[in-house]
Structures are given as structure tokens and as C-alpha cells.
Automatic annotation (TrEMBL):
Keywords annotated in UniProt: 4Fe-4S, Iron, Iron-sulfur, Metal-binding, Oxidoreductase
One annotated GO molecular function: 4 iron, 4 sulfur cluster binding
Iron listed as a keyword: yes
Superkingdom per UniProt: Bacteria
Pfam families recorded: FAD_oxidored
InterPro entries tied to this protein: FAD/NAD-bd_sf, HdrA-like
Name by which UniProt lists this protein: FAD-dependent oxidoreductase
Region forming the signal peptide: none
């Protein structure tokens, strides 16, 4: 046996004897959204459970972190029972009216359920080492106010959100998107009291953070506390700040490499498990404004088809909780084995609570059947999860367009069906809500290509013409290039209404697709967009999309970033363009007048445009990375 620890930032392994002070069936580390459910479920199953949490209460991001509302996710599971206990207290007049699930009450309800079930809780404690035998986790070294402890467990469940324990154990992980490793923005959440006497949260996207870099974490905390949303000379008495939540709102951090992985590509290709342990339900809730730097799959869906709105119901297999090649350790929460794209959908609180419950059920079966975690019999696991409704027999993979407030099981709107009828696709492409039709055409492929080409030539139907070109572009067919170029030359900022918000103007969809199609004729226009921004003065914009593109500066950032990425794709295939692109980019990035600025998302329309983020350094580092491939 050996122990892996981190000393002054460096991971070290050393031989260790099995001198454990205490023994548990399960140790849950991080008693947040997922971990609280994991600990309670495991203890209710009769297991001896230790819960280690670095803060002083349970519930994590959903309680002490102030993220008290639900956004999509699926119903069912033991979290519903916990929430109904919270709500029955919340209805009593002794408590202020609360928007969402009352964080403090949920702390107490979780505490009392955990204690009642027999969980031994250790707050203000955290893990500093992991004991392993080969790649089988045997226990943890952890520190509490009493000092250092060495404790064994049959199964360790890492619910730290950041996969802290798995990382310590040497588990492989990914972080951020492929191009530059950047995660979604974080939020520094406030609690406020509102004029109607209720209490609720308030948050904006506060910036970006690298959790592997302590300086970045500290700087993010300082800077976001000093934002105009937080520290003000004079506060508006309409909404009084009560507190800054002590747990930073991290949307995305490490994602483990598991025995199984769910990717957005799998979702698009219908390659999904038949052995789900729960379903995740959300849209691709990507808070990023620099969409041009996201993956092709994400841009196909969000940019070319403008499908920010539709929600996916995604089956999650048990292998996403098991670190690849390891035994004795599971993860639950936002660090599941999913790719960056689908991580923006598989992170909502209901689903993360389910992941904790599922992890505890897997641990229980592994211990009672005396089998490795990856050998846990699916039939038994499914029966346990169906019993608590964590997994429902009625659930299936589907797409639905509903508002965050609607319960999709009760929703009057049926699940979206991909269109297969040519006439139905034509009709939908001729509207301002073409997204599903564009994607349906892409799915059909070859059989509809000739019809799309014909519709693309119907000048009298401009929407049909342009949407058909976008569909053909997604299918990789170059016949659409002249129409896509037309969209670019016209600086056509037409906005489809496919999604609730975050709709993508035709122009950026066309630039993206022309890059994918390696169209050299569009290069001079792309270089013009990169070189200068005076053309912006005459552009007409649509303010209904201001959550995504708030002002002209942000609009120019979109011109610049989409053009840069398309130009790189084209020059990748056509080396004769590389030198000119490098010259234009080099001199533009050196231009002190270049302002590449985004507006962070605020969730509150009146506060829109408040927080700006300069993107020059990020763009420059992406440029340097791309150009280095050619040297
Ligand atoms: C700003 C923001 C807004 C969101 N809005 C919504 C929304 O409206 N609706 C919705 O459904 N979802 C929302 N989400 C998503 C959802 O809240 C999170 O994805 C989910 O809560 C994550 O759960 P988790 O269990 O992975 O992590 P957490 O709930 O953060 O739990 C991790 C726990 O581990 C503890 N911990 C961490 N490291 C250690 C360590 N080394 N040792 C011991 N303990 C440790 C932490 O203190 C914490 O208690 C939002 C997320 C953010 C950040």
C-alpha cells in the first residue's frame, strides 16, 4: 500500500502501512449538492458512513453557495423528500419569504436527516492524502481541527465537485474546452432582500478562474468581491445586500476520465447508454460569450442551428462515476465523466443530487455483493434507483423546448420530434424558427440535399434560401457557399427566434460554416473584419438579443473571433494564406487601440452591460497556440 499526497503543490507517493485509526464502509468527501445525498442514502442503506466537508454545513452550491433555484434537471429521488421537508418549514410564518429552496433551512434539514440516518459528519475538515493498493483506493488521510487522521473505507465517494480526491489519487481528468482549456465563467453569488419582503439570490457571471492556480482563485475572489454588483458606495434600498455567499459558484471544473464517458457528440449521434442510472435534463447552458472558440459540435448546434433553447434528456451510465482503471472510488456531482460540451447541460442541481444518490447505491451494492464497482449488477442497481424514483421507468432520451419554470413531465408541449417529411422541413425553414428543421435536414443528409439546393435558389423566399444554405453548410456541401458569402458580404445580422435567448445572427453562422468549408474567397472579407472595425458604424443591431450581444464592442468581438477562427481553418487547408493571416493578426494584436471586450451575463436585464471583460490576452494566447502549429 502507498499514500499519495500533495506537498507544497507537488504530488508525492510514499509507501504506507495499514495503520488506520478508524474504518468505514463509505467515506463521502464534500457534503454539497451531490455529497449530502450520497451520505444520507448510504447511511439509510445501513452502511457505516463518514462525511468530510471543508465548510461548516451541507448542501454546497445549492445552500451555502446561494444557488437556491432549480433550473431544469429531472424530478424524483430522495432529494425530493428532503426538499419537501424544507418547503414545509419554509411555509411557516416564522421564516421570511424565500425565492427558491431556503438555503439555511435546507442546511438544517440535511443535517438532521444525515444525523438521523447515522452519518458521522466532520465539518471544517478536508482530505490531504489517499491510500491505494495498486489502483484500488483503501482510505484517506484527512485533517480536522483535532489534527491528522488516517481512515479506511471500502468505498470513497469524491463529491468535492472539483474531483479533489480523485485527482490526489492520480485519476486522469480533463478541464475546460479543447482549444484553450477554459471553463465556463464562475459567479460570486449574493443573497439580497427584495422590496416585497422576500429573500433571494443575485448573481452575475463574475469572470473566469483557473482552479489549479491558487493565485487565480484568490484574485478571482478579490476581484469579484470588488465588482460594482457587490461593493458599492451607496446601496439601493429596494434590494438590500444580506451577504456574499462563502462558496464561490463554479460552473465547471475538473471532469474525470471514467470507465464510461458521455459526450455531446454521442448525444447528437444517438449513441447513448441503455443502462442509465439517472437522466440529466437541460439545454447546453453555456455561459460563455466566446462561442467561436468552442468545439465544432457545440458550434454546429448553437451557432449554425441556433439551438440554445431545446433541452436534452440524457441517460447517464454508471461508468461515468467510476474513475477509469480504479476501484474503491467513485465521483458524483459536476466532475462526472462527460465532455466539456455536455457538461454545460449535465450539471443542474436536481441531476447532481441524483448522481450522489446513485453513487451511494453503487457503493452499497459493491460492498454487499462483494464485487468491484464496475461489476455492480445493473439490474439490482436499477431496481434500487427506480424504487426511490431517482430513475423512472418512463424516462427516455428526448429533446424538449420548455421554459425553466415548466415541469417537463407535466408540460403541455410534447417532446420535439425530428422532422422527416420534406414538405414539413421546407415549411419550417421558411420561418424565423428554423433550428429544428435545420438540424432535421442535417440528420437526413443526402436524401434531402437536392431539395435544399433547390430551395436555396428561391430568391423570393429569403428565409428559406438562407436557412437551406445553413443546413447544407452543416452537411458539408459546398453548393451553399455563394449564399453563405452573400450573408457575410451583407453583414446580415438577422436573428432567428429558435431559442428563448442567445440566438445567433446569420452572419456568424455563415462565417463559421465558410471556415468549415475552407472557402478561400471569403478570406479578404474575414481579414477586413480582423483588421479594422470602422464598418461597424453603419450596422443595425437587434437589441432583443442583448443578453448575448450587449453592445457594439461585444458585437465586434464576435466579428473578430468568428473571423479569426474561420480564417485559421481556411489557412490550415490552404497554406498560401498563412503568411497574410499571420501578418494581419500580428499587427492587429499589437494595435493598442484593439479592444476585444465581452459583457458578462447578468441574469437581470436592467443590470445588463454592467460587467465587461477584456479578452485581448485570451485571444492572443489562442492565436499563439494556433500559429505555433504551422512553425
Ligand atoms: C453560479 C451558478 C448558478 C447555477 N444555477 C443553477 C440553477 O439555477 N439551477 C440548477 O439546478 N443548477 C444551477 N447551477 C448548477 C449547480 O448548482 C451545480 O452544478 C451543482 O450544485 C454542483 O454540485 P456538486 O455536488 O458537484 O458541487 P457542490 O454543491 O459545490 O458541492 C461540493 C462540496 O464539496 C466541498 N468541498 C470541496 N472541496 C473539498 C475538499 N477538498 N474537502 C472537503 N470538502 C470539499 C464544498 O465545500 C462543497 O460543499 C448553478 C451553478 C453555479 C455555479
Amino acid at each position: 500500500m502507498y499514500i499519495r499526497e500533495k506537498k507544497a503543490g507537488v504530488r508525492v507517493s510514499s509507501p504506507a502501512s495499514a495503520a488506520f485509526g478508524d474504518h468505514y464502509d463509505v467515506i463521502v468527501i464534500g457534503l454539497g449538492t451531490a455529497g449530502s445525498m450520497a451520505a444520507i442514502t448510504a447511511a439509510r442503506r445501513g452502511l457505516k458512513v463518514l462525511g468530510i466537508e471543508r465548510l461548516n454545513s451541507m448542501g454546497g452550491t445549492g445552500t451555502i453557495g446561494g444557488v437556491v433555484g432549480y433550473y431544469y434537471g429531472n424530478r424524483g429521488g430522495i432529494f425530493e423528500e428532503i426538499d419537501s421537508q424544507v418547503i414545509s418549514y419554509q411555509k411557516q410564518e416564522d421564516f421570511v419569504r424565500f425565492q427558491g429552496v431556503h438555503g439555511e433551512i435546507k442546511n438544517w434539514v440535511l443535517d438532521s436527516n444525515a444525523v438521523q440516518a447515522g452519518v458521522e459528519i466532520r465539518y471544517e475538515s478536508f482530505v490531504i492524502g489517499v491510500y491505494l493498493d495498486g489502483t484500488s483506493v483503501k482510505g484517506v488521510r484527512w485533517v480536522s481541527p483535532e489534527g491528522i487522521h488516517d481512515t479506511s473505507a471500502k468505498v470513497v465517494i469524491d463529491c468535492t465537485g472539483n474531483a479533489e480526491v480523485a485527482e490526489l489519487a492520480g485519476v486522469a481528468f480533463d478541464m475546460g474546452r479543447e482549444l484553450d482549456g477554459k471553463c465556463q465563467p464562475f459567479s460570486n453569488v449574493l443573497m439580497k432582500s427584495y422590496p416585497n419582503g422576500s429573500v433571494g439570490n443575485f448573481y452575475t457571471d463574475s469572470g473566469y478562474i483557473d482552479i489549479d492556480d491558487p493565485d487565480s482563485v484568490n484574485q478571482a475572489i478579490f476581484e469579484s468581491n470588488l465588482l460594482g454588483t457587490h461593493l458599492q458606495e451607496c446601496y439601493n434600498e429596494e434590494s438590500v445586500v444580506l451577504k456574499v455567499c462563502p462558496l464561490l459558484g463554479l460552473r465547471e471544473t475538473r471532469r474525470i476520465v471514467g470507465e464510461d464517458q458521455v459526450t455531446f457528440g454521442d448525444v447528437l449521434a444517438d449513441h447513448l447508454t441503455r443502462e442509465p442510472i439517472f437522466f440529466g435534463f437541460s439545454n447546453l447552458d453555456n455561459h460563455g460569450k466566446d462561442m467561436a472558440f468552442e468545439s465544432d459540435n457545440q458550434q454546429d448546434w448553437l451557432v449554425a442551428a441556433s439551438l440554445f433553447g431545446p433541452n436534452m434528456n440524457v441517460p447517464i451510465p454508471k461508468g461515468t462515476l467510476i474513475p477509469k482503471g480504479y476501484d474503491g472510488i467513485l465521483v458524483a456531482g459536476r466532475c462526472l465523466s462527460v465532455d466539456h460540451d455536455i457538461a454545460s447541460a449535465i450539471r443542474q442541481k436536481r441531476d447532481m443530487q441524483k448522481s450522489g444518490e446513485a453513487a451511494a447505491s453503487m457503493a452499497y451494492l459493491s460492498i454487499h455483493q462483494n464485487v468491484q464497482l464496475k461489476k455492480v449488477p445493473y439490474g439490482l442497481l436499477r431496481a434500487m434507483l427506480e424504487e426511490s424514483k431517482c430513475l423512472r421507468a418512463v424516462e427516455r432520451t428526448e429533446i424538449r423546448e420548455i421554459t425553466p419554470q415548466e415541469d417537463h413531465e407535466q408540460a403541455p408541449i410534447p417532446a420535439t420530434k425530428w422532422l422527416t417529411d420534406t414538405q414539413a422541413i421546407r415549411e419550417a425553414l421558411n420561418t424565423d424558427k428554423p433550428g429544428i428543421a435545420i438540424w432535421s435536414a442535417k440528420r437526413l443528409g443526402e436524401p434531402i440535399a437536392y431539395a435544399l439546393e433547390e430551395w436555396m435558389n428561391q430568391q423570393e423566399h429569403p428565409l428559406l434560401r438562407k436557412n437551406s444554405a445553413l443546413a447544407l453548410g452543416l452537411m458539408g456541401r459546398t453548393k451553399c457557399v455563394p449564399v453563405l458569402r452573400e450573408i457575410v458580404y451583407a453583414r446580415d445580422l438577422y436573428l432567428p427566434r429558435t431559442s428563448r435567448k442567445y440566438n445567433q445572427p446569420h452572419l456568424f453562422a455563415a462565417i463559421y460554416l465558410l471556415g468549415r468549408l475552407k472557402d478561400t474567397e471569403i478570406m479578404p472579407e474575414l481579414l477586413r473584419f480582423i483588421r479594422e472595425d470602422t464598418f461597424m458604424e453603419t450596422l443595425e443591431t437587434d437589441s432583443s438579443n442583448d443578453e448575448f450581444i450587449y453592445d457594439r464592442k461585444e458585437l465586434y468581438f464576435q466579428f473578430f473571433s468568428f473571423s479569426m477562427m474561420a480564417a485559421f481553418r481556411i489557412a490550415e487547408a490552404h497554406p498560401e494564406w498563412r503568411q497574410q493571416l499571420a501578418e494581419v493578426m500580428g499587427s492587429r494584436l499589437a494595435d493598442p487601440g484593439l479592444e476585444l471586450i465581452i459583457t458578462l451575463k447578468t441574469h437581470i436585464r436592467e443590470a445588463n452591460g454592467f460587467l465587461k471583460k477584456k479578452m485581448n490576452a485570451r485571444v492572443e494566447s489562442i492565436y499563439n497556440r494556433l500559429i505555433s502549429n504551422w512553425s
